[in-house]
Amino acid sequence: MAFELGLVGLPNVGKSTLYNALTQAGALVANYPFTTIEPNVGVASVPDERLARIAEIIGPEEVVSATLRVVDIAGLVRGASAGEGLGNQFLSHIRAVDAIAMVVRCFESAEVAHVAAVLDPIDDIEIVEAELMLSDLGLVERQIERVADRAKAAPREHAAEIDALHSLADRLRRGRWLASEDLDTHERDQVARLDLLTTKALIYVANVGESDLPEGGPLAEQVRAHAARRQASCVVVCAQLEADLGVFTPEETAALLADVDLGGGGLRKLVQVGYAVLDYITFFTTTGGRQIRAWELQRGKTALDAAARVHSDMARGFVRAEVVSFDALDRAGSLARARDRGVLRLEGRDYLVEDGDIIHIRFTP
């Protein structure tokens, strides 16, 4: 199952445009709040130059990229945590994703209205962050009430739990972002139980005008500085440009990106950062030489986990894994030469998969 990246932010900051650029899904984009009511969900390919090189070596009929699921969540407004603008519904959509990409408007436009009279990215960020914190605070306070009721019969058994919950509530009231806090074991246990928004992996996305590429200009610099204070990542994109690029050929896209000195593009950076903040790696499979496929897997998982990622039958009947690293295959130039050189090796179910491994699972059906 691909991980989910949720796009959040105020209305009219470019979330749906960015979503369309990532997924080419054609979500409705309009100049008024709450264009998106139910979340749009699409799939974006994860760019990886290694996939093309493996395909060059193997010569498959089909090449399949790893993917991430992108969720375009309706714009939050001040008071969302109290239900304003269908806020409770929208916040529940955010709680379901693995990582949050907070889209921040850093472009001026007479055609696209903004929710405030003056464009101030830090003020916009603080509105969204405050609503996420208040939503978490409400969850923690309700949990305190539930545990306090249970503690009446056995106060000592629940003392550590109540202390941890009160500590989390105090931090949230003081405007602390829990992902940036040094939490103790009891606090981390409560965070995991409640699935708090302010502990999710967070990426700030400074959505800029094309003229401010590649660095993003002074407004994006404010977002970058705020992200650093939150110990979070920041990516600069021009969502409109990236969406427009979707209609061009790869050669035309590369030429246009070169014109604005954007390298591989803002979308590539966003996907790669999303991968990184969730500590994902990529492994590859070669199905009889017919298909080369990239798969996402969390770092620290085993060959058995990789087998299950491909198909449950492979995990149930796992015998062994034939493994070669991308670098070794690249140097060898073929699987046969990799085997002759002894760099294609056999591994058991407990082998820890490394980023770039090419794996062939041997299993009993």
Description:
α4 (121-151) packs antiparallel against α5. A six-stranded mixed sheet has the order 2-4-1-5-6-7, with helices on both faces. It folds into three domains: 4-45 and 67-120 and 200-277, P-loop containing nucleotide triphosphate hydrolases (Rossmann fold, 3-Layer(aba) Sandwich), CATH 3.40.50; 132-198, Orthogonal Bundle (DNA polymerase, domain 1); 300-363, Beta-grasp domain (Ubiquitin-like (UB roll)), CATH 3.10.20.30. It is α/β, with parallel strands linked by helices and 365 residues long. It has helices spanning 15-23, 49-58, 87-95, 121-151, 155-173, 185-194, 217-229, 239-245, 250-259, 266-277, 303-310, 312-316, 326-332, 335-340; strands spanning 4-8, 40-45, 62-64, 67-72, 99-106, 201-208, 233-237, 280-287, 291-298, 318-325, 345-347, 357-363. It contains 14 helices and twelve strands.
State the gist of this model.
This protein is an alpha/beta fold and 365 residues long.
Number of strands: 12
Which CATH architecture of the largest domain?
A: 3-Layer(aba) Sandwich
What's the number of domains?
A: 3
CATH top level class name of the largest domain: Alpha Beta
Q: Strand-and-helix sequence, N→C? A: EHEHEEHEHHHEHEHHHEEHHEHHEE
Regions with little confidence, pLDDT below 50 for 5+ residues: 26-37
Helix content: 40-55%
The CATH topology of the largest domain comes to: Rossmann fold
The major sheet is characterized as: 6 strands, mixed
- Cα(first) to Cα(last) distance is 22 Å
Neighbour order of strands in the largest sheet: 2-4-1-5-6-7
**What value does the Rg take, in angstroms?**
23 Å
